[in-house]
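User: Fold this; tokens only.

Assistant: Input:
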Amino acid sequence: MTSLLLQKGRFPKALLAPTVNYILSQQLEDGCIPWYRGDKADPWDHTEAAMGLSIAGQWAAAEHAYQWLADQQRVDGSWWNHYRNNQPVCREKRETNFVAYVATGIWHHYLISGDHSFLLHHWQMVQNAINFVLRYQSVHGEIDWAVDENDCGLNDALLTANSSIAKSLECAINIAVTLGEDARHWVRARTLLVECINHKPERFDRTWESKARYSMDWFYPVLTGVISGEQARARIDSRWSEFVEHNLGCRCVSDEPWVTIAESCELTMALLAIGDHTRAVNLYSWLHQFLDADGGYWMGYQFRDKAIWPEEKTTWTSGAILLAADALTEHTPAAKLFTEVNLLAPSSRASKQGLGV
């Protein structure tokens, strides 16, 4: 199959069942989901794959994945960037958006499963992770992209990473509100971050060359709801021809002939966020030519050389395929997580009575 046109209520369960099985086949016995068996795992991509399992109804496997994160979390709330055999590959840095993303995964699973005990069980993990990240927020609002082995922030910020953190803060706030916890400090931090992304571009890429050639810097503020409305639509339109290769997908960078499947899925959801359903459906329809016989999706395609590159089928690519399919078909209660901002108000807080918190 080389194309697939999806619409609301038409989740392609039969097509994507092998993709779900592919993620399951790569998950390790302890719950860890590496990029693929024998390769590294990182907290962000591990969570992306786990979200795919939640969408597919593989709740036990998804919960096993989140428990692995809980088991690996450091006392300060962080995780190292990469792991093999439950050991950090290196201890040079911890990326803040990797740490924050657990909140997105936990909230996503709760939206689908409705399991309050799951949310309560992982509250401390989420709280510790988000509080760690916010230690590295400046008075201007941006958050250092990484932290070194001595717990020092690396004194610069990435637009894509900060946009991802903004979505994670939204999810963390919703978790806190649902559990009756005080989230006012997180609300203030998110407000400051969103204002920085929208109005202080000079706070990003201060010590290196601009990352504007990366497509994620283009669409991530839209995907995460940091930029919305007419401004978001204008942003997507302004560089569409620069990043999107017709009948293939979204380039990783504007000046290289390489499309990636996961970024194309994320752009699909960004299009839905601006109400551009037609382009979202078309873009997603191009990606299934990269589905392999075992259910995994190839990571990318180098179209100048007409070659799959790299020859890797990452679990997080499969997770992104499932997330985009859910967003297009509204298959689960979490379908709009990346297409809308939905901050719960303090009045929606659950009573603490009986929660044990």
